[in-house]
Design a protein that fits this description.
With about 210 residues, this protein is α/β, with parallel strands linked by helices. The chain is about 40% helix and about 20% strand. The protein is globular.
Length: about 210
């Protein structure tokens, strides 16, 4: 018989929050971002991908670059905890605009995301684009997207290769650049601490899968 080995890569799928939009602007809206992380049904989102091409994850970094432990549910949505965090979010939005690629599995993932957020009484308006257009639009200042479903990858095996392109020009950039200036053991610790701190206290994304 034939045997196949499946392992994580330096690429992953996540929902990126737009830090310039009213729903997510500033650390005071971290409660909403945490609520969404708890609301995600990661098994269902991964199920939209082809067999063995994705593995559930809640990390900011790909598993091969990450030292963090799990913070958010991998077994399915946790609507009770999600609504608890939503209650701390002040006035959460009634609608969010999601940009996504026009792949068949992206449509399915977008539908699942919308279903997950209905648990929080938030409706999702989905706008699909071909991938090059999607990547372009996400980088345009003032573009009216709240969340973007994106594949993100590092070009080399270091957290900087993943985080700098993903979060350049945002309020997270100064902390990322500070970690990137370090070397050796101090650098490793800085990236590990930054990942855990961001995802626990001020998550810039809701990740759901490493590619394999």
């Amino acid at each position: 018989g034939q045997f196949f080995r499946s392992g994580p890569t330096l690429s992953r799928w996540l929902f990126l929050f737009n830090p310039d939009r009213p729903a997510f602007k500033g650390a005071r809206h971290a409660a909403l971002r945490k609520a969404i992380n708890y609301a995600l049904d990661r098994p269902a989102l991964v199920g939209a991908h082809a067999y063995l091409t994705a593995r559930r994850s809640d990390r900011l970094l790909p598993a091969t670059l990450s030292n963090s432990r799990r913070l958010y549910p991998l077994e399915g949505s946790n609507p009770v905890t999600a609504r608890s965090w939503l209650a701390r979010a002040g006035r959460p939005p009634k609608t969010l605009t999601l940009y996504t690629a026009n792949y068949p599995f992206s449509f399915l993932s977008a539908q699942e995301f919308a279903s997950n957020l209905r648990q929080l009484d938030i409706e999702v308006e989905t706008k699909p684009f071909d991938l090059p257009t999607l990547v372009e639009k996400v980088d345009v200042p003032g573009e009216p997207w709240d969340v973007a479903l994106l594949p993100v990858e590092s070009r080399y095996p270091d957290p900087a290769g993943f985080l700098i392109p993903l979060l350049h020009g945002t309020r997270y950039a100064a902390r990322i650049n500070a970690a990137n200036r370090l070397t050796g053991a101090a650098r490793v610790k800085a990236w590990a601490d930054l990942e855990v701190n961001l995802m626990r206290n001020d998550p810039p994304v809701a990740a759901y899968a490493d590619t394999t």
